[in-house]
């Protein structure tokens, strides 16, 4: 008889970026291995911080996708974020995920797996597992407590203390955990979690990336072949601190061949568009479809990651895996000795976060050094092939899930 697994996450398909990529991939991977999968989740809202029009037919209640049973909860979505809104957002998620789980869920599960960063998902997963007396697994993709403090959220120190306290309680209740970086592992262990209970599974490339010829890829987007194109993709939020990139573009205004594209959505999108409106070398564009994502990366000369100077150990950008598999060089403006800096050291070009002059100078230097660009491309791709293979990552999760299942029978 196939084992029944319940996933509790506030980010799931059809969200196109971030944690949803990995929660959806895990559900599909387990389904293909013969597990019966149910998912308790929210309405699709990230990175737009609203439900986009194309998804307005996705309603609260039960649905099925590729044999996976999905229970969605309607909830409040803040268009902008501060401490009070974040607390209200978490409370709305908790209340409505709890309501949906009580109204729809059976008692017939073997294990529960919850996904943080939202504290609400962790609490609901913990409560269901406790009520059904089954093993509880926790996947820590991001840290709400550290995130509120490090991402520049107004009043974030207050929410950070509250979130860290609740996160710690959820950590303590988990029978087994997965973290996605060494820095995150250190934070979890510091909460008093035994090291042997914490598994590290680095995020793999869940998106299939195809390397395309640059000229034809650029033609798809109408970009000139003689320009040096820098692309940043994904969430446009506070922790990305993309104002730093806009300031770098201002410094680069006398280098007309350098063009910077910020491509994605997020709660800082309108502000960034306003800042870039009259500039000729930096543009904010909507996210492309998954089918066009490989072409987008192939069209670049340089792929950019930019982080707030305070962002040390909360997460790793999910786009990293796709970047490195694209065969394009990566430049990261990140806090020295932070999680991203440590992860990319030796395989990408690094510059200290929050320094637009340094970032501008490094972009200009790289634009004039094709040999260095080729070296970075090769380093990143080789690292990705050796360390970020999707099937290896999926197997690690499968082994972890099977070990969690054994706790039920022990």
What's the short version?
44% of the residues lie in helices and 17% in strands.
Task: Write structural notes for this entry.
This protein is of the alpha/beta class. It has 2 domains: 4-204 and 389-409, Rossmann fold; 214-387, 3-Layer(aba) Sandwich (Rossmann fold), CATH 3.40.50.2000. The protein contains 15 helices and 14 strands. It has helices at 20-32, 83-104, 119-132, 144-150, 156-173, 182-190, 214-221, 243-251, 269-276, 290-298, 319-325, 339-344, 356-367, 370-387, 390-409; strands at residues 4-8, 36-42, 61-65, 68-73, 111-116, 136-140, 176-179, 198-200, 228-233, 258-263, 282-285, 302-306, 330-334, 349-352.
Identify the overall geometry: globular
Q: What distance separates the N and C termini?
A: 18 Å
CATH-defined superfamily of the largest domain: Glycogen Phosphorylase B
Number of domains: 2
Total count of helical runs of at least 4 residues: 15
CATH architecture of the largest domain: 3-Layer(aba) Sandwich
Strand order of the largest sheet: 3-4-2-1-5-6-7-8
């Amino acid at each position: 008889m196939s084992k029944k697994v319940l996933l509790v996450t506030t980010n799931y398909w059809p969200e196109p970026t971030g944690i949803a990529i990995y929660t959806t991939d895990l559900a599909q991977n387990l389904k293909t291995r013969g597990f019966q999968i149910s998912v308790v989740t929210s309405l699709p809202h990230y990175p737009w911080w609203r439900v986009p029009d194309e998804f307005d037919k996705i309603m609260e209640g039960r649905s099925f996708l590729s044999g996976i049973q999905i229970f969605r909860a309607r909830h409040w979505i803040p268009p902008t974020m501060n401490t009070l809104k974040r607390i209200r957002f978490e409370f709305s998620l908790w209340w409505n995920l709890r309501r949906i789980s009580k109204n729809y869920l059976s008692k017939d599960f073997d294990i529960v797996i919850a996904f943080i960063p939202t504290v609400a998902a962790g609490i609901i997963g913990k409560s269901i597992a406790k009520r059904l007396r089954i093993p509880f697994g926790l996947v820590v993709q991001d840290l709400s407590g550290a995130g509120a403090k490090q991402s520049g959220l107004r009043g974030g120190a207050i929410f950070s203390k509250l979130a860290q306290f609740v996160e710690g309680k959820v950590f303590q209740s988990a029978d087994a955990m997965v973290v996605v970086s060494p820095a995150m592992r250190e934070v979890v262990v510091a909460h008093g979690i035994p090291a042997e209970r914490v598994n590290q599974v680095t995020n793999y490339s869940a998106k299939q990336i195809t390397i395309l010829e640059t000229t034809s890829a650029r033609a798809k987007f109408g970009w000139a072949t003689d320009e040096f194109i820098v692309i940043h993709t994904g969430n446009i939020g506070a922790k990305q601190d993309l104002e730093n990139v806009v300031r770098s573009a201002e410094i680069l205004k006398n280098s007309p061949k350098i063009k910077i594209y910020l491509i994605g959505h997020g709660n800082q999108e309108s502000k960034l568009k306003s800042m870039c409106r009259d500039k000729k070398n930096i543009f904010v564009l909507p996210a492309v479809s998954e089918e066009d994502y490989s072409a987008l990366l192939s069209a670049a000369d340089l792929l950019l990651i930019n982080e707030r100077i305070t962002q040390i150990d909360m997460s790793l950008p999910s786009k990293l895996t796709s970047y490195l598999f694209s065969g394009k060089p990566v430049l990261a403006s990140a806090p020295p000795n932070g999680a991203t800096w440590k992860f990319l050291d030796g395989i990408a070009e690094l510059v200290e976060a929050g320094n637009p002059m340094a970032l501008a100078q490094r972009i200009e230097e790289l634009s004039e050094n094709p040999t260095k660009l080729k070296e970075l491309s090769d380093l990143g791709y080789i690292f990705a092939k050796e360390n970020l293979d999707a099937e290896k990552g999926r197997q690690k999760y499968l082994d972890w899930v099977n070990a969690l299942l054994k706790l039920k029978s022990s």
